[in-house]
Amino acid sequence: MGKRASMSRRRTAGFTLIELLVTIAIGAVLIGLAMPSFTDAIRSSRVTSAANEFSASVALARSEAIRSGRIGYMCASINGTSCGGQWNDGWLVWTDLNNNAAADADERPRRTESIRDVDLTGTALAGGSATTLKFDNRGRLSEGGKREFVLKAASCRSGANQLRKFELSTTGQVTMEKDKCP
């Protein structure tokens, strides 16, 4: 009597092609659902970062004016070396050493910033320039009255918490509030 070799089927470990495709499809659907909220998180982070940079730059211009006893400026700047353009192009902070109201070569900028994917607009509520802030040696706005700034994500989805409103008082104090996009 010969022994018959038993041909038992052993189950192999691993995935079948069908199981793998189903898993990939489910993963793609979950990623598709999570992407919009992740995009909102990135936009909110950019707005928060730009708001912090803007607020810090205002504080720097004001404190430099007080520290040096000279006029401190912050202005919208398209190139980072001179005033001109809109706030969302970027801005420049410097101390005016020769009182000519221009950022000269010997008046090195204290700070230059540019922002990405964020819209920043300024409004002069009681005279003065909407694109230039001028602080006297006491830290007060020396031209015009208070200013209002609105900073929001470039593609601000209605109802998203991606908008910041700043109010700059004549005493140089900044208040900020979070708001939802219209």
List keywords for this structure.
182 residues, minor pseudopilin epsh fold, four-stranded antiparallel beta sheet, 1 helix, 25% strand
Short précis:
By secondary structure, the chain is of the alpha+beta class. The longest helix has 52 residues.
**What distance lies between the first and last C-alpha atoms, to the nearest angstrom?**
89 Å
| Quantity of strands, as a count | 8
The helix-and-strand class reads alpha+beta
* Unreliable stretches covering 5 or more consecutive residues: none
CATH architecture of the domain at 24-68 and 116-179, by name, is: 3-Layer(bab) Sandwich
Report the principal-axis shape: elongated
Q: What does this entry look like structurally?
A:
- With about 180 residues, this protein is α+β, with helices and mostly antiparallel strands.
- It has one helix at about 15-70, and strands spanning about 70-75, 90-95, 110-115, 120-125, 130-135, 145-155, 165-170, 175-180.
- β7 and β8 (about 175-180) form a beta hairpin.
- The radius of gyration is 28 Å and the shape is elongated.
List the helices and strands and how they pair.
Elements: H1 17-68, E1 71-76, E2 91-96, E3 111-113, E4 118-124, E5 132-135, E6 147-153, E7 163-168, E8 174-179
Antiparallel strand pairs: 1-2, 1-5, 2-3, 4-6, 6-7, 7-8
